[in-house]
Amino acid sequence: MNITFECAAVKVSGGTLGCGIKLEVEGAELHYTLPDKEMLSFMDEENIREYMESRGHLVVMRREDAA
To answer: Of 13, 12, 14, which Cα lies nearest the Cα of 23?
Structure first.
């Protein structure tokens, strides 16, 4: 899986990079998993919707969330 992180600061062995930085990790593997509901609570709802729709699912949003 590929993961993108956007960080305000990153600690490295030589110190801290204080400027904003975007890290893209390719081929990441999770060695610890959270329960599905807990994992979903950390994810952006728009990304979840796009992912589900790309897999052929119909996604119905609550009226207050609809654009």
So the answer is: 12
The number of CA neighbours under 13 Å toward the Cβ of 19 is 2
User: What is the pLDDT at residue 58?
Assistant: 92
Amino acid identity at 53: E
pLDDT at residue 56 is higher than 90: yes
Question: What pTM does this model have?
Answer: 0.40
Can you list the alpha helix ranges (DSSP code H) found in the chain?
Answer: 36-42, 45-54
CA 25 to chain centre: 12
> In the chain, which ranges are E strands?
3-7, 10-12, 15-17, 21-25
